[in-house]
Structures are given as structure tokens and as C-alpha cells.
Amino acid sequence: MSAPPKRSSSARAGGDKDKSKVHKLSLKGSAKLVAEFFQYSIHTILFQRGVYPAEDFSAVKKYGLNMLVSSDDQVRSYIKKIMSQLDKWMLGGKISKLVIVITDKDTGEHVERWQFDVQIFKKASSSSKSKTSTPIGDENTGEEKPTATEKEKDKTEAEIQQEIAAIFRQITASVTFLPQLSGNCTFNVLVYADADSEVPVEWGDSDAKEIKDAEKVQLRGFSTANHKVETLVSYRLVE
């Protein structure tokens, strides 16, 4: 899906503490938590990378941090539409990765690519077959879906929230090493969903929108008893 038009600007975030509660997330609860993480990731990247102006964002408390979310009606509506489908795919265990691509509107060149790989922990089964995943958004590329047979140890809510907060702190800190984006930029969200996934008409197959000769930096990840998410940012070096 393509994004609303861009404008300009900059970034920041803050910190606080979360309550600790021992519990075990159900598969449904874990899927919801991952989908919610993706939602805040989109907002945070748009803010931190200046894809939209800073004055179009407002602060909300989440993960013990002051998170910035877009208050622009068009952008919110676009992200809400993405999340509405993403929630369904997450609950169905249909997703292997979510990608946010920032593109220079003038040249059409992809300048930054944020990739979130999703592993779903499943019991080993001799009858289970690996499925293929397709990036949803312009052209078809099959890819093996990452799965894991070992479960993560149970964690408290506070431990999971701390892991997620650490990722957002890294995204915020990434402005220190990522090249400054120049010109007008827009963004696309790609979701790698199983080939047998039900896809709404407004979504289409997409190419992977890779960045040529990209520099890549592996960031932190987080896990629940059911899912593991890893983060990677690729970017074009300024010549």
C-alpha cells in the first residue's frame, strides 16, 4: 500500500517505567501484542526519520515511553487500514515479516528499509510443511516462512515491555548513524503473508523494494512465549 503525501521534519522520545505482572500470553494475546508493536513502529519511524513534520505528531504513553504518533487524519486512516488487516493475518499466523520502505518521491529510489522478521513458535510436527510468504503491496516473490519449534521461556509483562522499549530507544538513537533524508519522501508498508492468505482487493503483490548496495544494521528484538520479532534497518549510503 502506498502512503499519503509527505511534508518535512525531525524527532525525539522519552522514558518511564512499566508495572510488572507475571502472566503467560495466549497465542491470541501474543499476536495482538506483536501487531500493536508494528503499529507504533510505523508511527515512530515516520516521526524519527522526518517523513512527516514533527508538529503532526502527538505524544502518548506506551511501553513506559513517551511515544509519538501521527495526528494527521490521512496518515492515521492509512495506518488504521493497514492494522485492520494486519491484526487478522497475525491472529491466523500468516505473517513472516513486516517491512517499512521509505522512498524518495522525486527519484523513486528506495532510501531506507526497516524489516521486522516474525518467528512463530510451534510444536514440531512431522506432517507440517513450510509455507511460502509473499510481500503484499506490487510483485510476487516467494520466501520460506521462518518458524521455530522451541518455545521461549515465560516472561513477565514487564520483561516483554522492557524488550520492546529497548527497540524503540534504538530506533530513536538510529538518527545518529542513518544518513539524513533529503527531498520529499513517502513510505510503503509490505507484509510478507502466506501464499494462501486471504488478501483484500486494495492490497496487491509487491516486489521486495530492496535497497541497492545497502548498509545493514541489526537492531534489538523481543520475544513472547509464542512469537519472536527481530529488527533490521537497511539504508543507502550517501555518496
UniProtKB/TrEMBL annotation:
Keywords: Cell cycle, Cell division, Mitosis, Nucleus. Residues 28-233 form the HORMA domain. Coiled coil: none annotated. Its main location: nucleus. It is found in: Nucleus. The keyword Magnesium does not apply. Residues 1-13 have a biased composition (Low complexity). Residues 1-22, 128-156 are annotated as: Disordered. It holds the Pfam family HORMA. Residues 142-156 have a biased composition (Basic and acidic residues). It comes from the Eukaryota. InterPro entries: HORMA_dom, HORMA_dom_sf, Mad2-like. Belongs to the MAD2 family. PANTHER family: MITOTIC SPINDLE ASSEMBLY CHECKPOINT PROTEIN MAD2 (PTHR11842), MITOTIC SPINDLE ASSEMBLY CHECKPOINT PROTEIN MAD2A (PTHR11842:SF11). This is Mitotic spindle checkpoint component mad2. It comes from Podospora pseudopauciseta.
